[in-house]
Structures are given as C-alpha cells and as structure tokens.
Design a protein that fits this description.
Helix content: 25-40%
Radius of gyration: 18 Å
Order of helices and strands: HHHEHEHEEHEHHEEHEE
Strand content: 15-25%
CATH superfamily: Vaccinia Virus protein VP39
Structural class: alpha/beta
Shape: globular
CATH architecture: 3-Layer(aba) Sandwich
Largest sheet: 7 strands, mixed
Number of domains: 1
Number of helices: 9
Number of strands: 9
Length: 246
Amino acid sequence: MPTLLEEAVATQRRYYTETANRYERMHAHEGSGDAFNSKFVVAMLQMLGARSVLDVGTATGFRLVELRSALPGAFVCGVEPVSELLGVARRNDVPASASLIRGSGLALPFADQSFDVVCEFAILHHVSDPQTVVKEMLRVAKKAVLISDSNRFGQGSLPVRLLKILMCKARIWRAFDWLRTRGKGYRITEGDGLSYSYSVYDSYDLLAAWANRLIVIPADPGKARNWCHPLLNSGGVLALAIRESS
C-alpha cells in the first residue's frame, strides 16, 4: 500500500508525463517568464561572473538554452526527474547547448560548491519538502542561489493575505492547510498538476543564513501598494542569495 507521499509523487510524475509535449506552452510563463525578470536573472548572472549554472527541475530545458546564449563559455546543466520531459529536451536538441541529468532536487548528484549559481524556477511549490531542495541547492552552490517561485502571502484579497501571515506567525498554517486539503496537504488542478502551499518567504531564513546579500523582488508586475511589497502584493517572488567572497 503506497503512502500518501508516494501517491502524490506518482500523481505529479504522471501529470508531467502526460503533458510533456505541451509543457512549454503551459508553463513557460512561470518563474522568470516575465520579460523584466528574465532580463534581471541574466544581468545578475553576468554581474556575478557565473561560469557554471545548474537549473534544478529543468523540465524540457528551454531555460538552459536561454542561459547558455546569455553566458557564452559557461557550463550550463539541468537536473530533471521526469524522463518524458528530458525526452522532449533531447528532441529539441537542448544537449547541444547544455548538459542534462536525470535526478532529483532532494538529493542533487553533485559535490559541495560544484556550481557558481544554482537556480530553480517554479518547482518548489510542487515538492512536499521544499526546504530539503533549498538546502541541496545551497550545498552545491558557490556564489549564488536563485529561487523564483510562488508566494502564498501575496495571493487572494488583502484580508486573506493578512490572515495567512497571522496563521503562519501563530504556527497554525500547517494545521489549517491540512484541514482544507482534507489531510492530503496538496491540491490538483488541470493547469498546474499537483501543488503545495508554498512561499519563497518559507525559505527566507535558509537563504539569509547562507548568504552575505539577499535580494528579493516581485515576480509579478504591479504597483508597490504598501511597505510590505512584495510580501503582500506579489503572488510570485524572486529571491537571489549571494555569498560574496571575503
């Protein structure tokens, strides 16, 4: 009898297997899909002088081609657990621009500080234990870790957003989420498959403890309506943790 977590993993893998050929049309806008954010990511990697970049959960590898074009001479690699998505990447000739490895972000197959920069784009909200993935990203990174993902605190009406923060600070959010998902902890939608409630701010302490400098910007376009921007105003957040050499 499979556990709840095993069932969730199987459901997610099945979703990506069935949608592999449509993945880029369905999900290319996620993460750094906004034009400004894409340019910001490239500019930051160039500023850091990145000579090696790892994309965790690279899917069909379309971002690898963009990164390789922006960073000529750099070693660019993607890790992805779903073989069907890697199959699409190979058919699209992604290996001509970057390396592809089948593997999981929960246990990255690399030594400590193997890459200058380690990135993820909208995959952490699909993982039951995103903090383990973030820890692995920090372990194999040398200069920077970039996370571009969802932010539950910037979603919904203002009263709902404030309530989410209060429940989080009161340490009752997990219990509430367990009740609203009827004990599963995740939701399933046609457009996003299986997803968990996640905010980049959930990983803030991990990033801040590792980095000398932490840059946080909204991933969604919109006005800064209050002092808590982007915490309360953006459904997606991009965080760049930089470890500057002394």
